[in-house]
């Protein structure tokens, strides 16, 4: 079998926030293979060994291999356009590079470049190679959206309709997809954008203005991260900053939720220690957290998937963090949804 190649144009045509959010929620809530209940064969489950990280000469050049299997999960059928769910299983492997000098090239390239390999579940044959750069941008934001939905929105009687003030710290690829995804999914009343190089925040503000012309959403570009988060109830931060960009004193009191997705070589650091000291922390994958977050001093309660499965509530007036590492199961379910739609 000659594998199909699905390029970024085809991928982009299929991706929508409802499709990606639903696929990522399935990946998050699938139970870990080792904890699967043998009596419940209907249960969705996943197996994703720790990813490998290979250095390509120096720490600015990384290659990550991310294999994953998700079994018995509900996949949206984008083709039928009627939100019909069907049971699906997917075996996939994402290969992704993080080359932090790419943005300085002329013309610049994204720092994160990815491809997802999808395998035939019966024969193991390689079915397709799918350009995965967009998938990485969208699925990471979608995981933060799902985390915000379950850790923050559920605290309010109006749930997902609750108006929120949102801060985006870092307006690179991740910042943009978080801003676009959050605004497409939730009732964002005010959005505050900060980026080290202000022109990127200005460009994102223009894009949002065009998209939400008819809407009463207020858009602000701020000079400092502190100004951006002062009023914010939900904060998304995705940068390569090795130093904390926000600290506890900058936050408003009461209900605040932070999605932190970046920091480069280690998966934390853009948020200060005093924020972790005052927060309850959830992750996407505890298996990966054990290795990749081993030096993080934080009260890690568990996985977002457990919160979804057990319909747990976080307390009101509490500071929550979703610490995103990125996991193969998300890439698998999103790539499968794209493949099914073509
Ligand atoms: N958890 C997950 O699943 C994933 C995590 N990531 C991580 O997300 C982060 C962002 O990735 P991505 O958006 O693709 O990268 P981009 O290169 O598109 O954006 C990088 C952003 O970081 C900012 N930045 C870099 N250094 C600093 C600094 N010292 N202080 C303040 N801001 C800084 C840049 O600002 P400027 O514009 O001024 O350069 C830019 O806003 C990375 O750490 C990446 O590893 C990425 C994919 C998935
Ligand atoms: O999950 C991913 O994909 C990535 N995570 C960390 C940075 C590189 C891409």
Automatic annotation (TrEMBL):
EC class, as a word, reads: oxidoreductase
Q: Catalyzes what?
A: L-pipecolate + NADP(+) = Delta(1)-piperideine-2-carboxylate + NADPH + H(+); (S)-cystathionine ketimine + NADPH + 2 H(+) = (3R,5S)-2,3,5,6,7-pentahydro-1,4-thiazepine-3,5-dicarboxylate + NADP(+); L-proline + NAD(+) = 1-pyrroline-2-carboxylate + NADH + H(+); L-proline + NADP(+) = 1-pyrroline-2-carboxylate + NADPH + H(+)
Q: Which GO terms describe its cellular component?
A: cytoplasm
Gene3D superfamilies listed in its UniProt record = NAD(P)-binding Rossmann-like Domain, ornithine cyclodeaminase, domain 1
Which molecular function GO terms apply here? hormone binding; pyrroline-2-carboxylate reductase activity; thiomorpholine-carboxylate dehydrogenase activity
Q: Which EC numbers does the record give?
A: 1.5.1.1, 1.5.1.25
Which Pfam families does its entry note?
OCD_Mu_crystall
Its family remark reads: Belongs to the ornithine cyclodeaminase/mu-crystallin family.
Subunit info here reads: Homodimer. Binds the thyroid hormone triiodothyronine (T3); T3 binding inhibits enzymatic activity.
Q: What is this protein called?
A: Ketimine reductase mu-crystallin
From which organism does this entry originate?
Answer: Glossina morsitans morsitans
